[in-house]
């Protein structure tokens, strides 16, 4: 009886834990904070951004696209920026073009001896290839310096003198705000940064926010290129960041800021940008660096990404090798080699035997006996 009671207690506790996870708000975003109604869930699976840094004018442009999951029908997203920003819709084709430019090079690599999936080890198998708009009035401590309607987005550009005032603004506009988010905003308030607040909703009312959202393009001036990341420490699940940096030289994150070491997947010059890339960077040569980074423990993120020029403009492209069994005319070379060796051995054996048979008999050396 006591054992049954313990089992029931454990089951109830597990159910309570699961229910708690369903109603808890999710705050997940690589460079900002996603907030939604407390009864809804939303999470960011992947954040992909392109940063263009124009050193001559001190202008930085960030185009970002999120891949989200959950059951929220509306959500708000907040991003700190060091100076006043202009916001517009980004070109969805930009990321397709960047992915094409930085795609790994695929090379074949032949091997001689058969392996596990090759005959005769695996008989019969073949080789595998490898919404309501934000309120216009800010209230005490918050200033709304601009608001635009951009496709499915309502965008408010805000100033705030303290994080609590910014939290109050979000509350008045119908969203729950975590106390942790208020604390996360404090360093930006102290540095007098401004904020881009976005309210977004799916194209059709009643549909949850899922998949890739339309990209947004944010432009501001700064004395050095940065990528805001500090608020991502509020995420409750591992995060990943794909970052394209377009600048005059190879430009990379200065350090890991609490995540895994940033991995450069591509580095190379684009002499004549075209299409959506040219719309972002303008004409003329630009150096493109593609970086991927994982954050297994978002709570360890302790700063924003500072993007710095590398020691040299060393080009790099990832190579993906496709191993294949070495063949000639469809026949594995090892089979031809073994067959050829066998033929040579057999022919050599016949030659030796033939030579022995053709050798003349030795003269008799017997002694004649006397009478």
Sequence-ordered SSE layout with sheet pairings:
Layout: H1 2-23, E1 33-35, E2 42-54, E3 59-70, E4 75-81, E5 86-89, H2 93-101, E6 105-111, E7 142-150, E8 153-160, H3 163-172, H4 179-190, E9 194-200, E10 211-212, E11 216-221, E12 226-227, E13 239-247, E14 251-253, E15 263-270, H5 275-281, E16 286-295, E17 305-309, E18 316-317, E19 319-325, E20 327-328, E21 331-332, H6 333-358
Parallel strand pairs: 2-13, 6-19
Antiparallel strand pairs: 1-4, 2-3, 3-10, 3-11, 4-9, 5-11, 7-8, 8-9, 12-17, 13-16, 14-17, 15-16, 15-18, 20-21
Helix pairs in contact: 2-5, 3-4
Structural account:
By secondary structure, the chain is α+β, with helices and mostly antiparallel strands. 23% of the residues lie in helices and 35% in strands. It has 6 helices and 21 strands. Strands 2, 3, 5, 10, 11, 13, 15, 16 and 18 form a 9-stranded mixed sheet that branches. Helix 2 (93-101) packs across helix 5 and helix 3 (163-172) packs across helix 4.
Q: Span between N and C termini? A: 125 Å
The major β-sheet equals: 9 strands, mixed
Total strand count, please? Answer: 21
Query: How much β-strand is present in the residues?
Result: 25-35%
Label the overall shape: elongated
The run of helices and strands is HEEEEEHEEEHHEEEEEEEHEEEEEEH
Rg is: 33 Å
Number of helices: 6
Instruction: Please mark out the parts with pLDDT under 50 across 5 or more consecutive residues, or reply none.
Output: 1-33, 124-136
